[in-house]
Amino acid sequence: MTNNDYSYLQDLTARIREQMNRYPAEMNDEEALKLIEHEVFGRPEAGSRSCRENTDLIRRLYLTLRGELGILQPLAEDPAITEIMVNGPEHVFVERGGRLERTSLCFGSEEELEELIRRIASRVHREINEMHPIVDARLSDGSRVNAVLGSIALDGASLTIRKFPESRPLDMDDLIASGSISPDAAALLQKLVRCRYNCFISGGTSSGKTTFLNVLSRCIPSEERLIVIEDSAELRLDQAENLVRLECRNANVQGKGAIDMSLLVRNSLRMRPDRIIVGEVRGKEVIHMIQAMNTGHDGSMSTGHANSIAGMLRRLEAMFLEAAEIPVDAIRRQIAEGIDIFIHMSRLRDGSRKVSEIAELDGIADGEIRTNVLYRLEEGLTGQPLRHPEKLEVWK
């Protein structure tokens, strides 16, 4: 589209929106579509466009005004796309099959993109403005949304949508079939979860941590009481009968009413949980999570961002130190006593996501937390996991 096309589209969108606002009752989708068609075909320039061009214009206007994700709606409905990334109004990328590709979609203006961001935020009762230019939210289908306004994004507003499929949740058999984990390692983890070992999943961005936590949590016996705590709800624990899901809440315009992860984890200890599942630890909530693992809530799970298990241990220590002045030796002992098993997820060069390492925490040696590797993925000619049967045997 040329600048004139964008200007025309903006004017047309504004006129239709004004008519919708004057409608005596809440307009349904069919009435909105009729109004858009009447406005498009009622203008003299409609005759100079082809039937296909008029149809595309009507569809774009309808998506802009009525679609949950505006012109991004077709991308959201494509099951092959797992992530949508908007870097300013003219740059829209998607992840398909683990690889990034640029699309031909463009927003008409920075204002159109920011209007969509505000609409998404308002639908989930979140706020984004010049005072609070960043928002994390989730869509009705559970997809995760992060948005940043142009006031702090130098190349224009940014919008990132990580999709979660509406089909049945993945289970361990699906991961085995896709090569994400070997059958022996999967059997080991299923056994450890049923035996109430505390597990922590680490990995880099988009390495599959949340997906694997979801899969692992499905191994929990259905009769146990679970308390699930997340910043934005993403986990799908359909098998759990006795389930409480808690979600963080941002502060209101006055800066009040925020409910953070630390408060939810602390409160969950009073809710008679058999297990506590924390979506991701990022700050001072790590203290209460580790204390829960050390005080009888065996079988608890969580995730965290790191490039290795050793890196995750250092991050946990750093989060402890940010929250309280505790000697490092005491912190390491609490971590070693609280977490039994670490599972590290990696995203490989071909875009696939796999379990790359499983290790047990084996106490303290020379002031450092000692780990015992039970399983490690080695990329070779076959790309098959390297198993350690002599170590797996210990856990049978």
**Can you identify the CATH superfamily of the largest domain?**
P-loop containing nucleotide triphosphate hydrolases
DSSP strand (E) fraction? Answer: 15-25%
Separation of termini?
63 Å
Count of the domains:
3
Describe this protein with a few key phrases:
elongated; six-stranded antiparallel β-sheet; Beta-Lactamase; 396 residues; Rossmann fold; 13 helices; disordered C terminus; alpha/beta; nine-stranded mixed β-sheet; 3 domains
Protein architecture, described:
With about 400 residues, the protein is an alpha/beta fold. It has three domains: about 70 residues, no CATH class; about 100 residues, 2-Layer Sandwich (Beta-Lactamase), CATH 3.30.450; about 220 residues, 3-Layer(aba) Sandwich (Rossmann fold). It is about 35% helix and about 25% strand. The chain is built from 13 helices and 15 strands. The strands form two sheets. The protein has a nine-stranded mixed β-sheet with strand order 9-8-10-11-7-12-13-14-15, sandwiched between helices. A six-stranded antiparallel β-sheet has the order 3-2-1-6-5-4. A hairpin with a 5-residue loop joins strand 4 and strand 5. The longest helix is centred in the first third of the chain and has 20 residues. The C terminus is likely disordered.
Topology of helices and strands:
Blueprint: H1 3-22, H2 29-41, H3 51-66, H4 73-77, E1 81-87, E2 92-96, E3 99-102, H5 110-123, E4 134-138, E5 144-148, E6 158-162, H6 172-178, H7 183-194, E7 199-203, H8 209-217, E8 225-230, E9 242-247, H9 261-268, E10 275-278, H10 285-294, E11 301-305, H11 309-323, H12 328-338, E12 341-347, E13 353-365, E14 368-377, E15 385-387, H13 389-392
Parallel strand pairs: 7-11, 7-12, 8-9, 8-10, 10-11
Antiparallel strand pairs: 1-2, 1-6, 2-3, 4-5, 5-6, 12-13, 13-14, 14-15
